[in-house]
Input
Amino acid sequence: MYLAGALVSLAAAMGLKRKALPQRQYHQALLILAAAFLLAAVIGAFAGKDERYRIARNEPGQGAQEKEFLVDVAGEFKDYPLKLEIAEKKLTEAQKRAYLKEARKELDVVILGDNPSADAVSKALFLPEYLQEGAVEVSYRFSDYHIFHADGTIRQEPEEPAVVEITAELTCQEAANLYQFSVCAVPREKSLQERIAEKLNSLVAEQNEREDVSYVVLPDKLEGRKVTWRKHAINKSFVIVFLGAAVAAGLIFREKEAEKRQREKRERQLMMDYPGIVGKFSLLLGAGMNISLAWEKIALSYQRNRVSGETEKRYAYEEMLTALHEISGGTGELQAYENFGNRCQLATYRRLSSMIVQNVRKGSQGMQKLLEQEEWEAYEQRKAHARQMGEEAGTKLLLPMGIMLVIVLAVLVIPAGMSLNL
Output
């Protein structure tokens, strides 16, 4: 099949070359495809040829391996899937004896674990299940299971040195060998604190043996040294510090949140008032006033309404009053208008202050039209902002509406389920 594909691809490539078609990339692609078919045919012819009759076996200790083949038997069947188990390499008797001998030497080294020698064993023994890279399997037996667990850990520490015999059964394929050796379990060297604790325990144990006594007196001296007893309790100082830090962090967070909410409220109010301020400027300039008089009239009108209680505090008009007071205090008019835009901290107000400064410098020509355009854009922005606020409010209502839906479903479903059970 691969050879047929290669021949067809070569024929097509030669046909394009003879016709001298201006499609060089197709000619190259066909040649590459033909080369791929030929390479696949070669690989297919030789792939698995060695493994079909000769399979490398694993080394001793690596275990058996499974191989899958497609078997063809002439005249019977073809491509029959067959799974074979290939055992690991079998050793000669001499090789098995050599492995067992080396395993004993290896065991003498590794079994001690963290112990210094077989004559001073106070810690757990290391009992490997396999030696010689898995070629030798090992099982263990102890002469005294009161001292050691089956896995080599210490069950009970001896009071005096005790000799324990260990029998290791080494198995290498079918060959087996018993290897016996002994270790001396010794008491673990105890620290000063452990020795003192044992003495205190013995003193308390003596009092436990007293009859008809309602209490135990803890010793206040040990070998001439004063002993002080305290109940083990949780150190609450750390808890107090942690709670204090949490409260302090909470206060800081609350202040920052309050500042953030106040800043957002101020920005929303500034955005809401901007179209009205621009509209008043446009109206007053159209009536013949200049910028200075229009500014003063708008600011003082707000001040009168604020004093009389007809309106609440509006940040934009407060900033206009501040600018008016700056001008009265000797600050340049242009500088006061620029300060107004910077204090408002919104691009719209900076744009308005820039327009006013340019009007004062260059005259009022075209100012009326600019303000009308600005007023229209401001109202469009206000409508978009209102829509956004409505969407946010609707999103906030989703959770309570979902809770109400769950409650309604529970009210309807629970009684129906109870009636079905009855």
In short: Residues 8 and 34 are 8 Å apart (CA to CA). Residues 236-286 form the longest helix (51 residues). The chain has twelve helices and eight strands.
